[in-house]
Amino acid sequence: MSKLLLISLLMVACLPIDKHEGDTLDIAPFHPESYVCYRTKDPLIIDGNLDEDAWQNTAWTNLFVDIQGDKKPRPKYNTKAKMLWDDEYLYVAAFMEEPHLWASITERDAVIFYDNDFEVFIDPNGDTHGYYEYEVNAFNTVWDLLLAKPYRDGGPAINNWDINGLKSAVKLIGTVNQPDDIDEGWFVEIAFPLKVLHEYCGGVPAKGGNQWRINFSRVQWQLVVEENNYVKRINSETGKHYPEDNWVWSPQGFINMHRPETWGFIQFSDVIAGQGDEAFEFNKDELVKWELYKVYYAQKLYYKTNGAYAQELNQLNNLGLSNLKYVKQLESTTSLFEGIASRLESDYNWHINNEGRTWKTKK
């Protein structure tokens, strides 16, 4: 079996199918986080220190929460991130409170989330297709992937793809793999080349006023000490490792990071960090797109039950979609569908297909 196929199978195995309650959809509320990303006038040195004025003048995000949101308690340890940009890079930094620094993986493009890690997900044009995933552990071992579409829609990770020109560094506040002391945590600093990220920007480049979808995740395993080494804690009833915790910036509602429609928003600003403030401007067309995703998930459930997609919107009423505000049209065959929606004040119609991709057309 090839390494690429093995990793794809492992990734799919770690992604549960979206849960449903009875015959109706269980869809999380739409409350994505948002962040205004200011410019740095000077390139940053990627060393994990965050001591440049630009970083010092940049606000942290809200503290991370459980991936399922309010369904679960607040994380045990604090995690936060911040962002900057210039003409060449999107910069991401994070701090993870961690009393027991641990890492084991040293091979690039191995499955990094088998260690405690920090992860970045970027969808430049927000259509949920063509997005990037980055993972790093406390050794600064990196895994970068390109996904043409989410796993749910049949898109395997392109693991042999690398972010050309990527820069990353970690700074440990403590000692890694030393169980006999208590650590403070670790910093991550990353420079993502915009030239690479623009490959899937779909006409929405990093530019003042433009918005991308982005999210961050922290994977945290339960550890115990055996013979002065950290090992994953075993559940005595199952004989298996306890499942990892997933702590994120913008909650997904499910244990599945590959739902790009629920990620947060980053808004690029031309203001230099520390020299002014700019308000985040929520685009109300995102509410139209979210309603289309309700149709998408309902159609998936309808197909699972009936072996074909619904031909009319009213066929989805018993799935909890009887009060749609923006979706006006549904065009379906047995194996394909397209939903169309818009709001009165917008200049665009929004579309979604059976693979979950969204796009807009002029009215």
Summarize this structure briefly.
The chain is mainly β and 363 residues long. It is 11% helix and 33% strand. The chain folds into two domains: 3-272, Immunoglobulin-like; 285-362.
Largest sheet: 13 strands, mixed
| Sequence stretches where pLDDT stays below 50 over 5 or more residues | 1-22
> In total, how many beta strands?
21
Percent range for β-strand residues: 25-35%
Instruction: Assign a percent range to the helix content.
Output: 10-25%
Cα-to-Cα separation, first versus last residue: 49 Å
Q: What's the helix count?
A: 4
What is the CATH class of the largest domain? Mainly Beta
- The figure for the number of domains is 2
- Order of SSEs, N→C? HEEEHEEEEEEEEEHEEEEEHEEEE
Coarse structural class: mainly beta
The best one-word shape is globular
Report the CATH architecture of the largest domain: Sandwich
The CATH topology of the largest domain: Immunoglobulin-like
Domain Carbohydrate-binding: 46-145
Pfam family, one: CBM9_1
Protein name: Carbohydrate-binding family 9-like protein
InterPro entries: Carb-bd_dom_fam9
3D architecture notes:
The protein has 4 helices and 21 strands. It is mainly beta and 363 residues long. It folds into 2 domains: 3-272, Immunoglobulin-like, CATH 2.60.40; 285-362. The strands form 4 sheets. Strands 3, 4, 5, 6, 7, 8, 9, 10, 11, 12, 13, 16 and 17 form a 13-stranded mixed sheet that branches. A 4-stranded antiparallel sheet has the order 18-19-20-21, with helices on one face. Strand 19 (337-341) and strand 20 form a beta hairpin. It is globular. The termini are far apart. The relative contact order is 0.17. Residues 1-22 have low confidence and may be disordered.
